[in-house]
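Lecture 7 notes: from sequence to structure.

We start with a single chain of 420 residues. Read the sequence below before looking at the structure.
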Amino acid sequence: MVVDEAHKIKKYIQLHEEWRGQTLNMIASENITSSAVNMAVASGLSHKYAEGWPNARFYQGCKYFDEVELTGNSLFYKLFDAQYVDLRPISGTNANMALFFGLAEQGDTLMALHTSHGGHISHTNFGSAGIRGLNVVTFPFDEKEMNIDSDKMVKAIIEQKPKIILFGASLFLFPHPLKDAIDAAEEVGAVIAYDGAHVLGLIAGKQFQSPLFEGAKAITGSTHKTFPGPQGGILITRNMDDDLLAKTQWGIFPGVLSNHHLHHVAGKAIAAAEMLNFGEDYAKQIVKNAQALAQALTEEGLTVLCEHKGFTKSHQVVLDVGKNGGGKWVAETLEHANIISNKNLLPWDPIEQSDNPSGLRIGVAELTRLGMKGQEMRDVAQFYRQAIIDKKDVRAVAADVSSFKKEYVTIHYGYDWNDL
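Now the structure, written as C-alpha cells:
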C-alpha cells in the first residue's frame, strides 16, 4: 500500500535523527540550527509564492512575508555593513550562478581556484561557470602554504585579463590575498568577488577576513555552514555601481530563480539575529576549536597540514591520510565509528584520484554549536587515533563516541523559539 511507503520515509527520517544524535558530525559544510530557525523553516511560509520585490509582488497574499523579508534584509545589512543584500538565492551555487549571469557574458574569463586546490565545483568549466559559458583559468597556488600564490596571481591577472576574479574555496584554511589583487584587477577592468560559502559565519563574526572592505564588490555564500542558518544562499554587495548591481539583481530574478523559498528566508533572518547577538563569541570559539583539534590530532600521530602556520584560521582542519589507508578508507572507517567527515583531494593528488584522495577535510562548526571546547577537541582526536592508527574495533569506538555525544545536546549561540 502507498501508506506503507510513506511510513518507510518517516521511519528513515527517524532512524537518521536517532543516528545523528549518536555521531560527531564534522562535515565542514554542515551545521545544526536552533529551534527558532527550525520552527521558521517548518512554518506555513513554505506554502507561499512571492516572486518580485516586497510590496511589489506578482502574487497576492504576501503582506506578512514582505515584512519578514524586509526585516531579514535589515538584519543582514547590520551584520555585514552592506550596500545591498539579497536573501532569495536558494543555495550558494545558485548565488554564484546569478553572479556569473549578472556580471559576465559567454566567453568572458573567470579566475578561480582549481578543485584540487580547494575550489568549488560551481567555479569550474564542468559546473556553473561552464554552464554560463565562461572561460575558467585558475589561480597559481602554493601547496606548502595552502593558499593562492600572491605574486604569481598578480602576473596571471595581467596576462589572462579575467572579467571576474573569484576568491573563496571549499577547502579553506586561510584568508585569501584579496587586497593584493586590487591594482591588477583595476588595470584589466575585472570585478573582484568572493565566495564566502564556508566562512560566512566567520566573516560575520569578524574572525576571518572582511572581503567587502578589502576590495570585493560582492560576496556570495551559503547560509548553513559556519553561518548557522537553514540551507540556502545569499548575495551581498558593497561599493558596486548601479549598473553592475542592477545586472546582479537581474541575475537572481528572473535570471536563475523564479520563486525563492520563503520559509528559508525567515530562517536566515533569525540566524542573522542570532549572529548579531552571539556571532563574535561563536566565531572565535570555532577557530579556537579548529586549532585545538589540529594540535591534538598531530599529538595523536596524524599528519595535519600547515603545522608551520598554526594549522588553520578557519573552521576546517585538513589531514593527509595517504599513509593511513587513503581518504576513502579513513572516511568510511570513521563513519562506522560514528564520526562523520569527508575525503578530499589534496593539491598533489591527481584529479583521477578523486574517489580515493589522500586528504580528509574536517569541520568543527557543529561541535562548537553544541558547546564543545578545547578539552573536547582532545577527546575527539583520541577517537580519530583509535579508529585510524590503532585500528581499534570500530564498534567499540562507535559506542564510546555515542556515549560521549550524549553529554552534548544543547544548542549554543542561538535562540529558542519559545523565548522569542
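The chain has 15 helices and 16 strands. Keep this in mind for problem set 3.
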